[in-house]
Every structure is written in structure tokens, then in C-alpha cells.
Design goal:
200 residues; alpha/beta; Rossmann fold; 8-stranded mixed β-sheet; 4-stranded mixed β-sheet; 6 helices; 14 strands; 24% helix
Length: 200
């Protein structure tokens, strides 16, 4: 079966860089908000940069807030896209998609901790986690740029520590997310994308 990947148009500034990352893997990707194109795809990516409120407003305007929960193919949220998978974000008091339980909150900033969290940091796989999205990624260094995060939960595959521990990779059924930027994370990011593409 031919792999057909779509990026949902959430208004994020990283659409082009995510497209380029998949192109480096030899996988063409289209950016769309057209329901028929999305439903006909094999894999769906929800990118996002900036504000959860702005990205959710874009999804609502396009009707994607109603379509996304109906999808049956693998879905990967990236950065703010991961945050939109949860019930609510503290950023702008935003009601999100509700595909994962929990609330996204501002990262605490005690003395010595800078927010936003920017730069390379290590993934810590959850003990006993065998999810294929994490194949080869335990202990990998990946690139983050964010001020908000979700606390670790039963859906967390890997955490990262920046003052406090937060969910860096999550999954529940077909719904998955990475708080870091795979498209900016070199070989580790490419590995996560390849792991995602191997899912059906």
C-alpha cells in the first residue's frame, strides 16, 4: 500500500520544515484542510508552533476539530500539535481536542530554570514501555522549543526534565505526539518519523 501522509493546516510556522523532513525520507507530504484528502491518507501529522489558542481557532475554522477525533489512521501531533491532543491548555485557557486526558500547563520556572525551554535534551523512556514509536529512541537527544507541557501520565512513552518532568512522547491507540521537534532533531527525529510511518 502506498504511504499517503498529510499535514493538517493548523497555521503553524513549521509546516515547511516538517514537509522537508519527510522529503528527506523519500516521502512526499501535502498540507491540507480538505476532509476528503485527510480521510484518504494513511498517516496524519498535526504540527504546530506558537499559541494553542491560535492553532485551535484555525482547526475550528476549517472544521478539523470535528474531523480529527473521527480519524482511524495513525495521528502524530508535534509540539503545540501534541498539546492540542489534550483536553485543555492553560495557554489562553484553550479547550483542545480531548483525545488524551489531562491539561497542558506552563512549565514552572524556579531559580536557574529558563522558560521557554529551548535546546537539546535527553528522552527518558518510561520503564517497561515497548511502543514501536519509541524504537531506538530511549536516551536520545532531541530539540525542544516550548513554554507549556503536559505532566507525565499513563499515556506517556517518554519524559524529559527541565526543572520538572514532563511528557515528551505520548501515545494512546492511534493518537501519538512528540513535544519536541522531530524535524529539527537530526537522526533521532528522522527515526521517530520512520517509526511513525511503519505504523498502520
Amino acid at each position: 500500500m502506498t504511504t499517503r501522509v498529510v499535514l493538517l493546516d493548523s497555521g503553524g510556522a513549521n509546516l515547511g520544515s516538517v514537509q522537508a523532513a519527510f522529503a528527506r525520507l523519500g516521502v512526499p507530504v501535502s498540507v491540507t484542510s480538505e476532509p476528503n484528502v485527510i480521510l484518504d491518507s494513511t498517516h496524519v501529522v498535526l504540527p504546530g508552533v506558537g499559541s494553542a489558542a491560535v492553532c485551535m481557532a484555525k482547526l475550528r475554522k476549517n472544521g478539523l476539530d470535528k474531523l480529527i477525533p473521527r480519524l482511524t489512521q495513525p495521528l502524530l501531533g508535534i509540539c503545540v500539535g501534541l498539546q492540542l491532543l489534550f483536553e485543555r491548555s492553560e495557554e489562553g485557557e484553550t479547550e483542545c481536542l480531548g483525545l488524551l486526558q489531562g491539561e497542558v500547563r506552563l512549565i514552572p520556572a524556579p531559580p536557574g530554570i529558563r522558560v521557554p525551554h529551548m535546546g537539546w535534551n535527553r528522552l527518558e523512556a518510561m520503564p517497561g514501555s515497548t511502543h514501536p514509536l519509541m524504537n531506538g529512541l530511549g536516551g536520545a537527544f532531541v530539540y525542544f522549543v516550548h513554554s507549556y507541557a503536559a505532566s507525565p501520565s499513563l499515556d506517556t512513552l517518554a519524559t524529559c526534565a527541565h526543572g520538572t518532568s514532563f511528557s515528551a512522547v505520548v501515545a494512546k491507540g492511534r493518537v501519538m505526539g512528540a513535544q519536541f521537534h522531530p524535524e529539527r532533531s537530526s537522526t533521532a527525529g528522522a527515526r521517530l518519523f520512520r517509526n511513525f510511518l511503519a505504523l498502520s
